[in-house]
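Two folds, back to back.
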Amino acid sequence: MTNAQLASIQWGVFLSIVFLLPQLLFRQLTFRGATITVYASMLFSATFLPVQTAPPRQSVQLVPFQWIADTFRDGQIAFDQMTLNVLLFVPLGAMLMFWGRRTIGQTALIGYGVSLLIEGSQLLWANRIFDVDDLITNTTGTALGWLGALAAVKVYTRVTTVVPQRELVSAR
């Protein structure tokens, strides 16, 4: 884990506490509210914090699947970045499945929209990159989160459904 990623996690924890405290103090804290607050804080900190001091090589990357070439050029860090982008949006997909009652298409579209909002904001933010690969990986992560939540619901339903036992019929 890089220093920037570690700092990003620390900022996310700090922001989560800052935004959860008022909810706790005013007795408005719910599981759903806490989950959304922590996720939004971590998402913001992962995409915008810490502020980069060195300007990137480019400000816009429009070549789809460029991360593959970057992995061969830069090594594991490009692959790790792609994996983290997918994982960052898995909770959004799960939340939309559980609480939003959305279809997978709607969920993917919302994930794309949130990702586009973030990437568009990064064009205006100092030293950030608009990356089409991030749009792809974030949307994929959202869809995978929805599928994972659906699988969890189906497994839970199977496990908790009581199967009626057949009565033994005596053979005469």
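---
second:
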Amino acid sequence: MSDREYRTVKASQTVLKELMVPSYANFGGKVHGGVILSLMDKIAYTCAASHVKGYCVTASVDSVNFLNPVEVGELLTLSASVNYVGNSSLEIGIKVISEDFRLGIVKHTNTSYFTMVAMDEDSRKPVPVPGLILEDEREIKRFIEGKIRKQLKSEHRAEMKKIRSNLDLIKEINALDGENCRLYKS
């Protein structure tokens, strides 16, 4: 029998709301993607640290697709939840919604998965995380999907390492014909 501690998903679920102000705007008048990414990182940390009851760092971020622009004056709501836990890592699922409350328009702007690692503050080495109590079918599904994402990322890293070590540069340079690049010749 393990003496590992377990916590519910609900115990660390986190919501962050922030008004998008003019200083967040880019030259096109939309909110900078970097501002949104920063808020996503903040909520991922808060959710992970709440589950771990300790210090965590961001290890990786799955793709972040900006589905809809965020306008100055909209209210951004970020929701975070622990989807999956490994030995020292946690996958935090984040959903971002923007709301123009004057017009009553609600838009899904992003969904992303952050991998956080629990760290000992003194040694800066990874430490075990509490397990996850899965209370319903949705939480079970998210846990399984997180496990699959972790496995696929590991397989992708291994495949890219293999490709880099076996790269035939001359063959690949010749295959650049038709690509939107030009080789510099001195």
